[in-house]
């Protein structure tokens, strides 16, 4: 990601509680505008962590994809999603399927992988009449606000993601790994430091230990980078959690997180993490045609509950290697 200062293009509106906003006023010319201002846009994101561009009129997947490809450095395929997306081709996807009445808590996309997107690109084709914003939060500020002892433990132990794949809840084996072939799945897991166990009946359980704090590969800033709170059982809506526990048991949840040594993460820690995120959250209601660019390492994002139709398409770009981000724990299968 370029660290050069933005060239003059439009006035950047920076307001408390809102992500930085640029007004493009280029409906129907989104691709040309993005190509002309690519370096400036990426410099703004390098400085602020995110930017919302309004006025491009991105109202279909083709137009959004064209803009995504101008801004990104190669759109990335989906891999190891925690919930399914609809593919629209050429690296453009639907937003993650998630109940619209439930909060999607702050997280960094694919933070449990050995390689992950450095940039997230979002285009709002249809804005909901109520709610549905994609909020953002500055990861270095979140890290600084967390209790030092808690940060030190996560730096020492990392975090552990446990996933149980089945055909009913969350992403299936085929959706997560792109295949149902056991040998291919096992080869992928071994190559990506993922411990795995096949369950009776053909289900799969995996565990992967990762660092909770990384150093941004460009700025060098330390960032709280993980999905500890979002993929923890205590973030699941209470009635949904009780149903899942009743049907699948505590070891059969589709996903859960713990400290890297396997110790459970208590509810009060999850609530603390979500509260700190909220204290540092910026939000702006979507408008039809908006573009949101997010530095996936510097900035967490989420999705707020909504009513009515909402269509946001997503692309991931700027492949980043965990090894280039000064991880604090060794990445080996358990």
UniProtKB/TrEMBL annotation:
Q: Would the keyword DNA-binding be found if you checked this record's keyword annotation?
A: no
Query: Which Pfam families does the record associate with it?
Result: TauD
Instruction: Write down the Gene3D superfamilies for this protein, in alphabetical order.
Output: Clavaminate synthase-like (3.60.130.10)
Q: Which residues form the TauD/TfdA-like domain?
A: 31-316
UniProt keyword annotation of Oxidoreductase present? yes
Q: Name one GO molecular function term.
A: dioxygenase activity
User: Which InterPro entries does the record associate with it?
Assistant: AlphaKG_dependent_hydroxylases (IPR050411), TauD-like_sf (IPR042098), TauD/TfdA-like (IPR003819)
- Name the UniProt key words of this record, in alphabetical order: Antibiotic biosynthesis, Dioxygenase, Iron, Oxidoreductase
Q: Which cofactors are required for activity?
A: Fe(2+)
Top-level division of the source organism's lineage: Bacteria
PANTHER family xref list = GAMMA-BUTYROBETAINE HYDROXYLASE-RELATED, TAUD_TFDA-LIKE DOMAIN-CONTAINING PROTEIN
Q: What is this protein called?
A: TauD/TfdA family dioxygenase
Its lineage opens with: Bacteria, Bacillati, Actinomycetota, Actinomycetes, Kitasatosporales
């Amino acid at each position: 990601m370029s660290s050069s200062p933005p060239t003059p293009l439009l006035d950047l509106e920076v307001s408390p509680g809102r992500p930085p906003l640029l007004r493009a006023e280029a409906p129907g010319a989104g691709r040309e505008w993005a190509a002309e201002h690519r370096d400036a846009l990426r410099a703004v994101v390098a400085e602020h962590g995110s930017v919302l561009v309004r006025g491009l009129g991105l109202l279909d997947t083709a137009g959004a994809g064209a803009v995504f490809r101008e801004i990104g450095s190669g759109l990335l395929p989906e891999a190891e999603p925690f919930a399914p997306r609809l593919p629209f081709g050429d690296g453009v996807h639907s937003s993650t399927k998630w109940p619209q009445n439930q909060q999607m808590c702050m997280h960094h996309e694919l933070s449990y992988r050995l390689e992950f997107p450095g940039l997230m690109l979002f285009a709002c084709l249809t804005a909901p009449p109520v709610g549905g914003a994609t909020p953002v939060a500055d990861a270095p500020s979140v890290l600084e606000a967390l209790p030092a002892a808690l940060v030190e433990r996560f730096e020492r132990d990392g975090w552990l993601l446990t996933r149980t794949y089945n055909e009913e809840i969350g992403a299936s084996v085929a959706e997560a790994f792109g295949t149902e072939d056991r040998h291919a799945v096992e080869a992928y897991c071994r190559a990506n430091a993922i411990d795995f166990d096949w369950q009776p009946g053909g289900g799969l359980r995996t565990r992967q230990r990762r660092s909770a704090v990384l150093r941004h590969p460009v700025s060098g800033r330390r960032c709280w980078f993980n999905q500890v709170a979002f993929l923890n059982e205590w973030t699941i809506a209470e009635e949904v959690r009780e149903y899942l526990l009743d049907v699948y048991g505590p070891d059969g949840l589709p996903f859960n997180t713990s400290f890297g040594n396997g110790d459970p993460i208590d509810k009060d820690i999850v609530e603390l993490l979500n509260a700190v995120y909220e204290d540092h959250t910026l939000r702006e209601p979507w408008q039809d045609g908006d573009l949101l660019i997010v530095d996936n390492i510097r900035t967490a994002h989420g999705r707020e509950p909504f009513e009515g139709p909402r269509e946001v398409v997503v692309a991931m770009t700027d492949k980043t290697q965990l090894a280039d981000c000064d991880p604090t724990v060794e990445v080996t299968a358990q």
